[in-house]
Design brief:
two-stranded antiparallel sheet; mainly alpha; Growth Hormone, Chain: A; 17 helices
Length: 350
């Protein structure tokens, strides 16, 4: 469910793409750009209104001395309304214990707790790397510079380019939504590595087709297929986790500050993309894709050896993982839980 949050970026992209295609095709006045702008302003206004009705999280309620409301939320979503269900009581008391151990004033201006221990620094590394990997894997070349890519492949009709731009996010959103359904089944690391494997294969095809499309114009359709394949596979593995993974790596009390840094570094990466990719395309053309092929390989190595597995783990369990000598190894360690006939955990074996 949480993985679906970032997927709806593509819903906005679909609306923007079709609004741009339709207005460009049917209007020769300033309404050709005014209509897409108005469409894209509508959804943020809806969000601003609806967010007023969102419930608070149980952890926030406990931290603000409203434990009865927190227990009711745990019971509603995890215990079929039964506040005495074992899983409800376990989660409730885990949060209480964690709060008693770690609660402090946590002033908004003090960021030292994000780096004051080895475990905290490892968490921050995950947040920063996810920010850059999510933007520097070749996806923003397609998102921001698709017309230039189509020009290089010999597809120069603006309406044809806008049509491709409108159709692409439909398939991308389908891939992202399907990926969100597999997050807990496959795990975060498998999803990230699987998405990058598809991205790497797609970029190799994209490079080959673009390099030869000038001599063989029919290969320009191979460029389109490569772009669609890249966006679908990358969105399958990365889009649901772009925001979710960083949040899962943070402690509850540092989540707001850590998420703020996540978006800070994400926007730094986007600035580099915005001003750097156009220079690269102008200077070396399709050879820029070779840079991304190499960089995706680097990302896969880093994720395999350093990224922790967060699937199926509570915030409290993540604390012991990040405090371990090797957090990645600790997070992928297999354990067996022994339960009695009432469903109570009586022993945990490595």
């Amino acid at each position: 469910m949480a993985g679906m949050y970032n997927n709806f970026w593509w819903f906005g992209s679909i609306l923007a793409g079709w609004a741009t295609y339709g207005s460009n095709k049917n209007y020769a006045t300033s309404w050709a750009w005014r209509i897409p702008t108005l469409v894209q302003a509508g959804l943020p206004i809806m969000v601003m209104v609806l967010i007023l009705f969102f419930p608070e999280s149980p952890r926030w309620l406990i931290y603000h001395d409203r434990p009865e409301e927190a227990l009711a939320i745990f019971a509603k979503y995890h215990g079929d309304g039964d506040e005495n269900a074992p899983v409800v009581q376990l989660q409730y008391h885990e949060v209480l214990e964690q709060m008693n151990l770690t609660r402090n004033e946590n002033p908004w201006w003090d960021f030292r707790e994000l780096v004051h221990t080895a475990g905290a620094r490892y968490r921050l590394y995950m947040v920063i790397l996810m920010s850059f990997f999510g933007q520097w894997s070749g996806n923003n070349v397609v998102s921001y510079f698709l017309p230039l890519m189509m020009d290089q492949a010999g597809l120069k009709d603006p309406n044809q380019q806008l049509l491709i731009n409108a159709i692409l996010p439909i398939f991308t959103m389908i891939g992202a939504c399907y990926g969100a359904t597999l997050l807990d089944r496959l795990g975060r690391r498998v999803m990230l590595l699987g998405g990058l494997t598809g991205a790497l294969f797609s970029y190799i095809l994209l490079t080959a087709f673009t390099a030869q499309s000038e001599k063989h114009p029919s290969l320009s359709y191979g460029v389109i297929v490569s772009v669609f394949l890249f966006m679908v596979t990358f969105a399958w593995g990365f889009t649901p986790l772009q925001t979710l993974y960083s949040v899962e790596c943070l402690e509850n009390r540092t989540r707001a500050k850590g998420s703020g840094l996540n978006f800070l570094f994400l926007n730094v990466a986007m600035v580099v993309n915005t001003y750097g990719i156009s220079v690269g395309i102008a200077a070396i053309g399709w050879k820029l894709y070779l840079v991304y092929i190499g960089w995706i390989c680097v990302e896969m190595v880093v994720i395999y050896f350093f990224f922790v597995e967060t699937a199926g783990k509570t915030l409290e369990q993540m604390s012991s993982i990040f405090d371990a000598p090797n957090p990645r190894k600790e997070s992928t360690k297999k354990t067996t839980a022994l339960m009695d006939e009432r469903g109570n955990i009586v022993d945990i074996q490595d």
